[in-house]
User: Fold this.
Amino acid sequence: MTKIEDVNPIDEYIRQFPEEVQLLLQEIRQLIKETAPEAEEKISYQMPTFFQDGNLVHFAAYKNHIGFYPAPSGIEKFKQELSKYKSAKGSVQFPLNQPIPFDLIRKIVAFRVAENQATAKNKQKKSKIKDKSPE
Assistant:
């Protein structure tokens, strides 16, 4: 018998799609795990999310594309490489009828890990300075 805590919500999310889409989602998930091994998996905004010092990236499947959400900074940093895809401030659409740019996704995830780590360190520094200031 499967225990409730054994059911991974991301596995459940992926299982609801056709097999060929499931394979793409699993590949994206795996490359994110490899690129951000310390990141925690969860569902946020009803989609698979990786969290490390804040949200790293989200991804989701739709009828005709995979949505990838690396925050506005991830889109801006890789604007040139993402220019052939439909995108918005914090998202990009990878059409299912074209090859998914796995190497680009890996680079974006690595950028977001470094960005979140830097932000976390800056918050710690500010917190320590604030703690030392006389009241």
Q: What stands out?
A: The beta strands are 40-44, 47-51, 55-61, 65-69, 86-88, 91-95. The first strand starts at residue 40 and ends at 44.
